[in-house]
Amino acid sequence: MAERDLNRAPIIAVTGPSRGAFGPRFLVACAIRWYGGKPLQLRPGDPWQQHRYDGVVITGGHDIDPVLYTAEPEVVPKYDPERDALEAAIIDDALAHRLPLLGICRGAQLLNARRGGNLYQELRSRRHKTSHRRTVLPLKTLDIVPNSRLADLLGSERAQINSLHNQAINQLGQQLQVSGRDLDGIIQAIEDPDHPFLLGVQWHPEFLLLIRRQRRLFQALIVAASKRV
After folding, report:
1. What is the C-alpha separation between 204 and 136, in angstroms, rounded?
2. What is an annotated GO biological process for this record, any one (predicted)?
3. Average pLDDT over residues 204-219
4. In the chain, what are the domain boundaries?
């Protein structure tokens, strides 16, 4: 068994598309560095198997292809199959090796799909108390499940979050539990209480880094990854 390198910063793989998404990826990297981690940016086509990392952040973006949860498209498709393949492989690898993982927006959805769950492909018909407006501002109310890991991290049973998604988790994947919903009951957070750190959030905490409780999501990821260094 190799000795731990206590002087090495935990390396966190940050996934994303081949082009664009500079802002979210930059902010995620800032959050990782804030708590002493080292971001490793991975894009489709990168030889990700050749890299060593101690934790993973799957960032937001386009909808995932419904073929990944054995469903037919219900909306006008805007998929990224190369990104789906990369992130599905990295999620599977993280699950197999019990690496700490934070899924953001589509990252939470893909995590759920890799555990056998599925998605609502449209939400307009399911929103009655919440707005359809997409915004990076924390204007949506999150109800947090008491005694969940998310409740411990955010320190309350209610918080304000942003909303940029047009799809959401429907049926849960295996071993996952709901840890947060919006006022319409739409799932906003999932977790695996038996995993060292496995959390998926439907909102974008990287846009809310000035809010301390939102930074705790990244801090907890780094703490868990540090135990693997």
Report:
1. 8
2. polyamine catabolic process
3. 96
4. 11-227
Positions annotated as catalytic residues are: 105, 204, 206
Average pLDDT taken over every residue of the chain: 90
> What pLDDT was estimated at residue 3?
44
pLDDT band at 46 (very low <50, low <70, confident <90, very high): very high
- For 190, the 3-state DSSP assignment is strand
List the beta bridge partners of residue 160: 141
pLDDT at 1: 35
Q: For the beta carbon of residue 201, count every other beta carbon within 10 angstroms.
A: 24
Run of H or E residues at 41: strand 38-42
- Asked if residues 91 and 113 have their Cβ atoms less than 8 Å apart, the reply is no
**How far, in Å, CA of 218 to CA of 10, rounded?**
12
- What CATH fold (topology level) applies to the domain 11-227? Rossmann fold (3.40.50)
Distance CA 28, CA 16 (A): 11
Tell me 140's DSSP state.
E
The pLDDT value recorded for residue 79 is 81
The DSSP call for residue 195 is S
Coil, helix or strand at residue 36: coil
pTM of the model: 0.91
Measured distance CA(64)–CA(94) in Å, rounded:
19
Residue 96 Cα distances to 40, 89, 179, 218, angstroms: 20, 10, 23, 21
